[in-house]
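It would be a great kindness if you could assist me with a short task in structural biology. I am sending you one protein, given as its amino acid sequence and as whole-number tokens for its backbone shapes. I would ask you to consider whether the tokens describe a fold that such a sequence might reasonably adopt. The full record is reproduced below for your convenience.
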Amino acid sequence: MNLRDERNGLCRHEVILKKRSIFAVLACCAAGCSVFAEPMKRPATEAAVADENLTAAQTLNACTQVIPTERLLLKGSLTVRKLRGIVLAEQPFKLLMDWGAPTPTAEVLLLDAQGTSLVERVVLTRPAGKPAQIRMYEGPEQKPVEAPSYAGRIRGTDMTWMDLTLDFLWWKDVRFDDVPRGDSHNGRDCDVLVTVPPSPIAGCSAVRVWVDRQLRCVMQAEQLDPQGNPVRKMWVQRVKKMDDRWMIRDMEIETLNSGHRTQLFVDDVSAP
């Protein structure tokens, strides 16, 4: 189902986008992935949204407040395609989220093409008041390896570890974009923010973020290079209701001028 077609239905349900990451999943809500959960109290009209008059920092902080705290297990795949649709690679994954733990944690299992053998395991934690931390283990023997760069691509896909952690939602240097309001890729009315990392990240001077004005969730993001030009973008494509939970069914991530893009697809969400 196309998200534009769901627009009125979403408003009737007053659902809130929660991170199922990997926008981001993400991206990401997140990245990096995001789910729609039961509603928080949100303004029902555009006038009420305007009356909130949130600052850029408050708008970004609102996105973190809708990240689910219950334990969730997601299963899906990352599929890399040429822009003409030819499949180049497919990466099955499982994601165990426990953002309500004393130290919020997510564990990612990257599997082989058949989805039977473990290739990599990544443990993500977010200690209070600190940046997200990444630990990586490889192969069936789970040998510890050097932690990847935030801007590093995940096993040749267009998705990065920054998408997976949605670290940019916690950056303190944030402002409204020069064009502070606009439609996201799927037609949602959004505030547009620019957030800057607290310490340098190779190839990323900032992230431009589209935040849905009514749902207060990330709908789209762009990684900006040192010259302020977008080099990678990601956006919500479709949503679906599973077990009384609205969730992003798939998301697209594109490295600009690469000739390919990655689709993140979630086919199952459950309580582990």
In short: Confidence is low (pLDDT under 50) at residues 1-39.
